[in-house]
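Protocol step 4 of 5: obtain the predicted structure for the target chain.
Materials: sequence only (see below). No template structures provided, no constraints applied. The aim of this step is simply to have a reference model before the mutagenesis design in step 5. Sequence pasted as it appears in the construct record:
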Amino acid sequence: MENSLVVPAAVIGVAFIVFGAALGIAYLSGSPVPPFQPPPNLAPLETPVPYVVGDIMQSEDTTQGAIVTGYDAYRELYSYQPVVVNVSAGTFHILEGTGTMPCQEFEARYPYKIFTNT
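Step 4 output (structure tokens):
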């Protein structure tokens, strides 16, 4: 008779934990409604962008490389991560620090895409 309240209390406790976990997941996943403004690092779909996020670019003399990490269509800037590319081995080494550069300057400095299957 003394243990008759233990089982219902355990069921209520487990239900409370599951409900709390579901609320936590719903809260952390964010709002399902998309924002009205695109994120600042993505170009609007109607804007033609020569390079997209994730493209690996290389200079004409192959001494410099960059991974495109963002594109701001409103300020016409690329953000990029400098890399050292070894085309013959198919490898690259990511250098420290990211930078931003105006679109025209970036496209002139890094005119060639490499690893086009990425």
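Step 4 remarks: The chain has a mean pLDDT of 76. The radius of gyration is 25 Å.
Proceed to step 5.
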